[in-house]
Design brief:
0% strand, 75% helix, mainly alpha, 139 residues, 8 helices, globular, N-utilizing Substance Protein B Homolog, Chain A
Amino acid sequence: MSRERSKARSLAAQALYQWQMAGQPVADILGQFLAEHADRKFDRDYFRDLLEGVPRNLEAIDEALAEALDRDIERVDPVERAILRLGAYELLRHPEIPYKVAINEAVELAKVFGAEQGHRYVNGVLDKTARRLRTIETS
């Protein structure tokens, strides 16, 4: 995946975290992030897709993750929760992105933003989720 897409994912993870914690409208967060990062080079369309798509598909995303989680999604660390939801959204709604890329990108985000071993948890949950959602690709 392109560097601009990786940057879009990074910003989307931060924006989704803010949405989860503050409960602000997605449109407000979108505007804020686009204004704050106007000088940065990133895939703005993909950032918008992720930030709007996760809340819009939240029920399906949380259902897809539920079988792979060892606790209720709301009890998962908020940073890892945002990253898991972003990764699951890509697995569900972006079949053109190889599942390994979606998982790797999420793991890298967890290494940067998550708890010390959070990337291992993200990897395990998304790997189990991908095996169910992308059976042909993962077999």
